[in-house]
Amino acid sequence: MSATYQEHGDIGVITLNNPPVNGLGHATRAGIVDGVGRALDNPAIKAIVITGAGKGFSGGADIREFNSPKALQEPSLHTVIRVIEEADKPVVAAIHGVAMGGGLELALGCHYRVATAGAQIALPEVKLGILPGAGGTQRLPRVLGVETALNMIVTGNTVLSEKLSATKLFDQMIAGDLIEGALAFAKKIADTRPLPKVRDIRLNYPNADGYLQFARNTVRAVAGKFPAPLKCVDAVAAAISKKFDDGIRYERDLFLELVQTTESKALRHAFFGERAASKVPDVPSDTPLRDIQSAGVIGAGTMGAGIAMNFANAGIPVKMLEMKQEALDKGLATIRKNYENTMKKGKLTQEQLDKRIGLITGTMAYADLAQADIVVEAVFEDMAVKEKVFTQLDAVMKPGAILASNTSTLDVDQIAAFTKRPQDVIGTHFFSPANVMKLLEIVRGEKTAKDVLATTLALAKKIRKTGVVSGVCDGFIGNRMVEQYIRQAGFLLEEGCLPEQVDKAAEKFGFAMGPFRMSDLAGNDIGWYIRKRRYIEKPEVTYSKVADLLCEKGRFGQKTSAGWYDYKAGDRKAYASDEVNQMIIAHSASLGMTRRKISEQEIVERLVYALVNEGALILEEGIAMRASDIDMVYLTGYGFPLFRGGPMFYADTVGLPNVLMSIRKYAKGSHPEAWKPAPLLEILAAEGKAFNA
Ligand code: 3HC
Ligand code: NAI
Description:
This protein is α/β, with parallel strands linked by helices. 48% of the residues lie in helices and 11% in strands. The radius of gyration is 29 Å and the shape is globular. The chain starts with a strand and ends in a 6-residue tail after the last helix.
């Protein structure tokens, strides 16, 4: 039973005990009903306390049960709450740590609530694409007022218990031991009758229509493709306009509707995907970690400066090394400017800025880095330069220091072999801007030690990144896939599209930016540089030369005010370029191709299925450990639409046989060599399976 029942004198105590967060799964729900029944049956018991074992009261419904029969199996959370509410002995919720979602709804169904300070109170369902489905939208407004409650429900944000101590949510704050305090409180109110119920609180809200209209407009503007936030407003509106039981039924209907949506499934996939990414099957979760108290960064360029900021933001002192004072000064000045911009936006105080800047120092001597616990190299993408740096690091760094490379394409095993300690070498592939982007690809070399991998994963969490492990291959997970996407974008230009048309289709699908705007932002010269190397190594790989022609014109993107588009000074807006469009049309003609009208559907399918097919190869080769890791890379590093759950999840929702059918269709087009279906895709499609089991 994942809820236990014990008697403390004349008080019955039910303890939720379902690690890790006391999720209200079927067994826990049944345990609560059982406990309440036993307390009611025993005439010696005068009141009941419900509390949570471990770190908190309850993190809510057990989301692993969603879409399984157990979620609906009685006793449902509604039934549990009804049993509590209708009990003829007082039930007190004793809250610490977290009371979220169904956990808070359970507490709202109790007659009384006491809490310790610091407990995280939230109805975060909206973040999972649903709304509170066990009375939260009807009861929370009754204790906090419509505006505060709606704000919490629509954002899903957490509020600390002490901030709500003066509301009807809490009857008493407990300063000392929670259980002792809750028992004392229960004794005090044991004989009070009638028992207070949140459902009986009258919700008065004059001028509700005006406020709700305002709320709907505001929420609509930020909800994007997600249906849940507006439904949250509808549910709270029902709390005002409907009788309590009708409101509950209405909320329940909306919940059941939302839980089935692809958007909600995508958000739940991302929630579990983020947590799964930090687990490596052959690295036990209790692997002892190396201590990271200080860091070094080699190279203070675009990436080095951003990487250093990550350490400082997490309170870790960091030294940046450059070859020349001028480059170092430039890097330090960039960092200061970035922080000042953040401060101007009101997101950083002067004190925080000073503290962070104070943690970042510069040097030109390797000896100054020797005692750092980790050093991240971010010098030019050139194996000879990497060799020089790693040879020096090997000579000076203290034993046990982690030696990381931010290379985006080079072989991490080869880099590790420049040292006598390949077990300490790992890839940490940050994304630009490194101080902003959530993704950190962690490249596990052939010889990378397990504790180095575990420490780097833990460090990712500490610096607030989503760490995803990749094996060694050209481009790792993200860039290897994006190459196929960009390749299709190039072919589309040759066959009849212009950049704007491709970008529009991709952005309508939900990408933050289409492939050409993205390339203009990242710098077209980077891809050009990589292609020169790549297609010398692999001359059999075809690609459109139109991007090379663009670079030959010096159109590197935003940084040269000209790329696939034209840019004006001080304006990031992309303006269609006649010069480029003429160049593309002339290029098609030079290939003897008749340009044709290409539908949005074809554009999107070719871009996205190119990602999916390469993702399947990556999965099959074991470069990625699981399909959700690939999805996390794309959601956090490449602007893939969250409401679609990532490329592999999206393919699952389309159905793998459908994806395969389209791939086979495109293989009959102008570039069949780019559409060889991944064997794993063929197998899963034939077996009626999905990438994400
Ligand atoms: N159900 C099942 N498992 C859950 C869970 C839940 N509600 N919440 C968290 N977990 C699991 C995580 O998957 C993770 O598992 P793992 O160790 O196997 O990877 C583990 O608990 C720890 O989670 P975190 O790493 O997130 O731990 P933190 O201590 O950082 O955070 C937390 C704890 C604040 C509770 C955070 O996990 C969280 O925000 N959880 C989601 C809460 C939520 O959305 N609740 C609403 C659920 S829907 C609902 O209640 C419907 C109702 O209205 C009917
Ligand atoms: P950059 O050119 O902006 O910065 C490189 C810096 O390294 C320069 O300041 C240079 O003076 C310094 N440097 C060169 N050799 C050095 C040496 N031997 N010792 C000390 N400093 C040295 O380059 P950027 O863009 O920051 O890239 C750095 C690394 O990060 C590369 O490996 C690149 O592939 C990778 N990367 C780049 C991304 C990007 O979007 N720019 C994204 C992800 C990874």
